[in-house]
Amino acid sequence: MSTTANDPVITSYAKAPTRTITAGGDTFAYRELGPRGGIPVVFFVHLAATLDNWDPRIVDAIAATRHVVAFDQLGVGASSGKVRDTLEEAADDAYRFVAALGHDTIDVFGFSMGAMIAQDLVVKHPDLVRRLVLTGTGPRGGTDIDKVVGTTYGDVLRATLTRSDPKEFLFFNRDAAGKKAAKAFVARLKERTVDRDKDVTLPAFRTQLKAIQRYGRSAPSDLSVITGPTLIANGDNDRMVPSVLSEDLHRRIVGSELIIYPSSGHGGIFQYWEEFAPVAATFLSE
Q1: What is the C-alpha separation between 272 and 262, in angstroms, rounded?
Q2: Phi-psi region of 83 (alpha: psi -120 to 50; beta: other; left: phi over 0)
Q3: Which CATH superfamily is domain 13-285 in?
Q4: Which pLDDT tens digit goes with each residue over 106-131?
Q5: What is the pLDDT of residue 160?
Q6: Structural domain boundaries of the chain?
Q7: At how many degrees (to 10) do helices 148-161 and 202-216 cross?
Q8: Where does the record locate the signal sequence feature (predicted)?
Q9: pLDDT band at 156 (very low <50, low <70, confident <90, very high)
Q10: Sheet order of strands, 106-111 included
Q11: Closest CA to 138 of 208, 262, 238, 207
């Protein structure tokens, strides 16, 4: 299913239909919304996530003025194939997806693993990306990124024992403010009630975790090739991708902007969405 000129403009991510496009024999599932034309903002999602894991408050704020595209990586949700063993391969898939849509210039919004894939994409295709938003993430070879495996499995177990969503533990501090923000975030993700994506399978989840581990143990990329405007954001207590790595990215990407939200974790941008969404929207609309 593809967009036609007569389709109505979708303004709510919760109501954006799921479309598919084929590239090199693979089928990518995606959703798009916002005004058509110009350079799109392509969203790169996190570990174990599908199209249904984007915070609609952030997507909708950006889609108010920009054409937004979110997609499932191969082997995830409604996309075909298997999850790749490395994030570089996932970046190659993303490039094929963008090319199949007919875009030669994009802006990128990446969160966590998605922002790692986005970095690999820009390093390989520096002329493709104009503006870059990197949240809850770190550079290839970043210190302690490879420890995400233990942290993730530990919090998944805690969530199972308390019948909670793992993201409540992985993304948010376990203080009163964090717990409240976590519940609100999970509730927002449920606002879409039809045409929801399939959950990530356990083998796909494990493959993604191993790919992140490899990324953390790899030689650093040359991020000096990133010369376009870049916005970096995180909470000050990220247990998945240590917050110091956001500062590391800021140092490596000349001219980048850095926002660190207080008393928040990996999902700091979701806890502080009321502050972050307009900042991101303004940055991407400049």
Answers
A1: 9
A2: beta
A3: Alpha/Beta hydrolase fold, catalytic domain (3.40.50.1820)
A4: 999 999 999 999 999 999 999 999 99
A5: 87
A6: 13-285
A7: 150
A8: none
A9: confident
A10: 18-23, 26-33, 68-71, 41-44, 106-111, 129-135, 230-235, 257-261
A11: 238
Using the structure block, give the residue that is written with the tokens 């916002």. 34
**Look-up: residue for tokens 């040359």?**
222
CA dist 171 → 29, 86, 204 (Å): 25, 23, 20
Q: Residue 17's closest CA among 59, 69, 64? A: 69
Which is more confidently placed, 147 or 8? 147
pLDDT confidence band for 2 (50 / 70 / 90): very low
Task: Provide mean pLDDT across the span 187-207.
Answer: 96
Token code pair at residue 78: 């409604």
Instruction: Report the alpha-carbon distance of residue 276 to residue 21 in Å, rounded.
Output: 31
CA distances from 104 to 2, 108, 129, 261, 274 (A): 18, 13, 9, 33, 32
Would you say residue 204 has pLDDT above 90? yes
Phi, psi of 230 (to 5 degrees): -135, 130
